[in-house]
Design goal:
The protein is of the alpha/beta class. About 20% of the residues lie in helices and about 20% in strands. The strands form 4 sheets. It has an 8-stranded parallel sheet. Strands 10-13-15-16-20-26-22-23 form an 8-stranded mixed sheet, with helices on both faces. A 5-stranded mixed sheet has the order 1-18-17-11-12, covered by helices on one side. The longest helix is centred in the middle third of the chain and has 15 residues. The protein starts with 7 loop residues before the first strand and ends with a strand. The N terminus is likely disordered.
């Protein structure tokens, strides 16, 4: 065990679905390796996952989090496209932009000078405001379509927006169905991609949210409608958000919320995909979608105070941008999936605790010196049995694992917030796998990872396996055959190999944990 002293303290058979894109690359990789040039294990084709970047915390940073009214005022064309200080939001995440929807948060659809949430008659209007976006003209659908086209020209997969769960004022004569049918049709005509349906007068009204989903599938079938608030809403959701967390203690709370959603079954043709927001390694470990809230504007707020939403302590989110890249690129290999599969949760709970200092949370009700506590199952798995972990101490990481519908397997080791440190203790993990040829994604720090397969691999003569690995943030695989152990039905990957290869493409000064894909040829 070793420790890196910083705000993070880490120690040191082809698939049945042969039509799936990720398996078509096997022959190409094998051919390329014969000539000495290895092809990237990460497809260049953008993911179809409903992953997005949301602007809310960027709005907050730009105005030093001086209240929700000011944060709403920051939602403007100038800030999204301008080249001034704290602007040019559309330039974020260049390496994965084509995989992400650009989701405008509150308040792209209300007048520029109407930023209060109290009795605001414009909340829920869902029409691109001409004052905030003066370059886009015409009808509501035309304006939104023009902005969608511009966002895509900047390299994003599509455009989305925050939706208040209520009708705007002045539409009392229209029924809920008439009102939202108009807006869904406009979204479809504009090519709008995502509705992040949040709070409002009807935010906890199940009948209303069901209506929205039903009409969305009829009038805007390509629009993702994301719900939240009550866990059982996931039954009729294509996407369901686990909702806001305080980043200083976010990991156990997010894991617990995901685990609580897994028992639900979807109705009809609803997808039931969980969005666990800005926890990318939790997302890949548990087959969830990602809603990125962090952004590359680092350091103190413009007014000089410490960034209270992303404080530079614990799991220092804005010094961990590579983990977002790695997780989103994993979704090119294995896409998030709904809640209808098998799952297991550990009966053992781990508890994180953080002693709060000044400017370390957006929750104004917290006092300095308060100890925040959150608990979650020590292990959670989907479509596979719980892995065996060699460590039973209170500081061991959360271990999350999933077998994706494509056959790919992912295992994440999630660090712990303890006292005033974020600890990533290395443990040995043994898990069951199904297919020697399926991609393996490993995320976090491990002592070693052992995978047990139902059959022995053929190691004789020309069938001798080759093992390739690649940092998911990079484009170049390396041959690790001599560094791993393959015995009968067991593959063992040492922690040092995971650490070295999984950080090969790290950005300067980035503190993200390793994230790599492994393929057995």
């Amino acid at each position: 065990t070793f420790y890196r002293m910083s705000t993070i303290i880490p120690p040191s058979t082809i698939m049945k679905k042969r039509s799936h894109l990720i398996y078509l690359c096997i022959s190409m990789i094998a051919l390329a390796s014969c000539t000495g040039k290895l092809t990237s294990l990460v497809p260049d084709t953008p993911s179809k996952a409903p992953d997005y970047f949301c602007t809310w915390n960027t709005q907050g940073y730009a105005v030093s989090y001086t209240g929700s009214d000011m944060m709403r005022s920051a939602m403007t064309e100038e800030n999204i496209f301008g080249k001034g200080q704290h602007q040019d939001w559309v330039s974020f995440f260049p390496k994965i932009r084509k995989d992400l929807y650009f989701v405008m948060d509150d308040s792209w659809d209300i007048p520029r000078n109407e930023n209060s949430a109290n009795r605001n008659p414009y909340l829920g209007l869902c029409e691109l405001d001409e004052g905030r976006f003066p370059s886009f003209r015409g009808t509501a659908a035309e304006r939104l379509g023009q902005l969608t086209k511009r966002i895509k020209q900047e390299g994003w997969k599509g455009l989305g927006g925050w939706i208040c769960a209520q009708k705007a004022g002045g539409y009392e004569h229209q029924s809920e169905e008439e009102y939202w049918t108009e807006r869904l049709k406009a979204a479809a005509n504009a090519g709008f991609s995502y509705w992040k349906v949040d709070w409002g007068h009807l935010d906890r009204n199940e009948d209303w949210r069901r209506m929205l989903t039903r009409m969305g599938k009829k009038y805007a079938p390509n629009l993702w409608i994301e719900h939240a608030m009550h866990g059982h809403f996931i039954r009729f959701s294509d996407a369901f958000r686990t909702y806001d967390v305080e980043n200083i203690i976010a990991q156990p709370l997010t894991i617990r919320r995901v685990a609580e959603l897994l028992p639900y079954k979807t109705e009809g043709n609803n997808k039931g995909i969980i969005n666990c927001e800005d926890e990318p390694y939790i997302a890949v470990g548990l087959g969830c979608a990602i809603g990125i809230m962090r952004h590359p504007m680092d350091g103190n707020l413009p007014d000089g105070r410490q960034d209270e939403v992303f404080p530079p302590v614990g799991h220092n989110y804005k010094k961990c941008m590579d983990e977002v890249v790695r997780a989103v690129r994993w979704h090119r290999i294995a896409e998030p999936f709904g809640v209808d599969g098998n799952f297991e949760t550990d009966t053992v709970m781990l508890t994180d605790h953080w002693v709060l200092n000044e400017n370390e949370t957006w929750n104004k009700g917290r006092r300095i010196g308060t100890t925040l506590r959150e608990s979650a199952p020590a292990r959670v798995s989907r479509n596979m049995s719980l892995p065996i972990v060699d460590d039973h101490t209170n500081e061991r990481p959360y271990i999350l694992s999933s077998t994706y519908p494509s056959g790919a397997i992912a295992i994440s080791a999630i660090g712990r917030a303890i006292g005033r440190q974020y600890i990533c203790k290395e443990v040995a993990v043994t898990a069951n796998a199904k297919d020697w040829h399926a991609p393996i994604g490993l995320f976090g720090y491990f002592k070693e990872v052992c995978l047990l397969y139902p059959k022995n691999i053929n190691k004789s003569g020309k069938h001798s396996p080759k093992v390739l690995a690649q940092d998911l943030a990079g484009d170049t695989p390396v041959d690790i055959t001599s560094e791993v152990s393959i015995e009968s039905n067991k593959l063992t990957i040492p922690g040092e190999v995971i650490r070295r290869v999984g950080l090969m493409a790290s950005s300067a000064n980035d503190l993200s944990a390793p994230g790599l894909v492994i393929r057995i040829m």
